[in-house]
Request: fold
Amino acid sequence: GTLSVSPEPAEVARLVDQARNTFVSGGGRHTLRIDLPEDLPRVLVDRGRIVQVLNNLLANAARHSPESSAIGVTATHDGVHVAISVSDEGRGVAPDRLPHLFRKRARDGDKDRGFGGNGLGLVICKGLVEAHGGRIWAESGGLGRGTRFTFTVPVAEEPSRGTAATVPSRSRPARDAHGQTRILVVDDDPQTLRYVRDALTEAGYGVFVTGDPEELPGLLQTHHPSLVLLDVVLPGTDGIELMESVPELSDLPVIFISVYGRDETIVRALDAGAADYIVKPFSPSELTARVRAALRVRAEPAPFLLGELSIDYDVRRVEVTGEAVELTATEYQLLRVLSMNAGRVLTFDSLLRQAWRGRKSAGDPKLVRAVVKRLRRKLGDDAANPTYVRNERGVGYRMPKPEDG
Reply:
């Protein structure tokens, strides 16, 4: 009989997020390349059923392509439908066999492309898509040239409007296309990933998860999260060292999650610049409360006050004894990084990564020294006995905490 569905308006990005999280939590090792236009309209679907379709197609793509290859997820708006595609770089399908992939009794040569050897997973996908009034098809350039599955779903009559919370533009956290604050979770324990993802999703956040710390830089650049939850112990690395080595994390609140509640570990994490530290096990309410607190601090950064120096991050204004100081973009960025990490010694390499953010001109400690020299001159800071920017000979620089200044 016909598969039952209960359609309601839904965001395509959220459906894809849920499928991606299930794929990763279930042990999926392929890199997922998701490319969704920001202006996609909402679709009228049974959310659970369409996530099931996406899960089946992602599992199918992973099964038939090497782990070193990527799986792509794209979507386009086509009139009264949105077309969603899942593509792989795997074994491909001969053109004459494409029409047979969605048949309940696949020909012998088609069995290896289905689920469990009988194509039942693709048959279910076809039934679910058609129950929504859409259609599904497969394309392939031939054997060894990958396969793309595309299905359509109807556009909801009323597109999503005004879902983003009203936040002053100067303090608005990064949000996705449907107004959710984005959070990235890095933990190699699938159960923790699932638990944290479900708790934060239920609280209304847009959640991205990974168990591979090597994916962190790419996910930061792709999704621009407002906060990162990071496990202390990760495969092949230390979470605290990872936080210090990835420049993009310098601008984000990082909350560590760990089974280790030793004081020395917590102190080390907080000294490294972590916004908070949560010891497992923790309740969903504790997790979401700590996330809200960290985001609130980020959204409302307090001005930095040290002696006669004041920095108002919201309006990018620097003053000494009440007089405005004109700084170049690089000078301000260096001062901002040092002040946001007050009390910590930042190495030349760390400053180059964070203040220059990968620009080709970076790479020489002499560049840092030259900018510090100009910065001190503009701040009226005595290089022989500095108040604001202090040397750590052969290592880098630091600014004292306001209470230490």
The domain at 304-398 is CATH 1.10.10.10 (Arc Repressor Mutant, subunit A). The CA atoms of residues 157 and 177 lie 18 Å apart. The mean pLDDT is 82. Residues 47-63 form the longest helix (17 residues).
